[in-house]
TrEMBL record:
UniProt name for this protein: Uncharacterized protein
Keyword Transferase on entry: yes
Lineage top rank: taxon: Eukaryota
One GO biological process term: methylation
InterPro entries, sorted: Methyltransf_16, SAM-dependent_MTases_sf
Molecular function (Gene Ontology), one example: methyltransferase activity
A UniProt-annotated Pfam family: Methyltransf_16
Keywords, ordered alphabetically: Methyltransferase, S-adenosyl-L-methionine, Transferase
């Protein structure tokens, strides 16, 4: 299915609406604010935390913002970080968690090997773990400590498989760090990894690297920029693609290796 220009209307889902729709518990306490740079909608407390973190020498102390969600019948507490990309929960993460939680038969994660790329705070990975998957959550090296804290705090004592956290810079030396002969995943997850950045080619290369026969990629993204549509077109050329769900500009796609379709 194609994406029309009508869908390019920007950032139309405030945090409050999103959280209530997709499992958030703390929506009632929030006042939403928007970053002009990223379009990312932040809670007032997240903005305060970020401001404080910017001025440690002036007597401000960074206090992480915590968000509480309810997925897979579990309370999930996510500590956000100071990075405005990896440290925040983005809208597609909430949409994907909601989808996975409400489609457990269609996407059965029990005992499946799942890789998340650009995992950020780790909310999607936590939900995958709680759904029974063996999860490897990945991101840039600087994002891993917060990711590790969130994975560990929310899965300890309530998972079938202990999750792993690894560095995975997109497109970087993939065959030597993640050789295809060794690493095989049933699912690759990605939420809001397509936005205005310079690594879209590397991102697609990473998706292709991990999407082997038998692998399903589930990619959720809010369509924001013209370049997002270009990525989507390239993505459709590389994979057999199905639109699983959409809610305005929010899309969730499932894709398979094109070679699988010829078998
Ligand atoms: C917009 S955030 C989305 C985070 C999370 N998936 C979510 O939806 O809440 C994009 C994520 O991609 C990661 N990222 C950006 N560029 C990357 C790169 N070149 N290699 C690996 N990860 C990258 C960021 O660190 C960040 O965690």
């Amino acid at each position: 299915m194609g994406v029309s220009s009508r869908m390019l209307c920007l950032y139309n889902l405030p945090v409050r609406g999103l959280q209530m729709q997709y499992g958030g518990l703390s929506a009632g306490n929030k006042a939403a604010g928007r970053s002009k740079v990223t379009g990312r909608v932040q809670s007032e407390s997240a903005q305060k935390a970020q401001r404080a973190a910017c001025f440690p020498g002036l007597g401000f102390f960074y206090k992480a913002n915590k968000e509480v969600y309810n997925f897979v019948e579990q309370k999930i507490t996510i500590e956000e970080g100071i990075d405005s990309y990896s440290g925040m929960i983005w809208p597609a993460a909430l949409a994907l968690c909601h989808y996975l939680d409400t489609h457990r038969e269609r996407v059965n994660f029990v005992d499946k090997a799942v890789l998340e790329i650009g995992a950020g705070t780790g909310l999607v990975s936590v939900v995958a773990v709680l759904l029974g998957a063996w999860v490897t959550a990945t991101d840039l090296p600087g994002a891993l400590s917060n990711l590790r804290v969130n994975l560990s705090r929310n899965t300890r004592g309530r998972c079938r498989h202990t999750p792993q956290v690894e560095a995975l810079p997109w497109g970087h030396d993939l065959e030597s760090t993640y050789p295809t002969s060794v690493y095989h995943y049933d699912y690759v997850l990605a939420a809001d990894v397509v936005y205005h950045h310079d690594f879209l080619d590397q991102l697609l290369a990473t998706m292709k690297h991990f999407c082997r026969p038998g692998t399903t990629v589930i990619w959720a993204n809010k369509v924001r920029f013209e370049s997002d549509l270009t990525f989507l077109e390239n993505f459709k050329k590389a994979f057999h693609t199905q639109l699983l769900a959409e809610d305005g500009d929010m899309k969730i796609f499932m894709q398979w290796d094109l070679a699988m379709m010829t078998k």
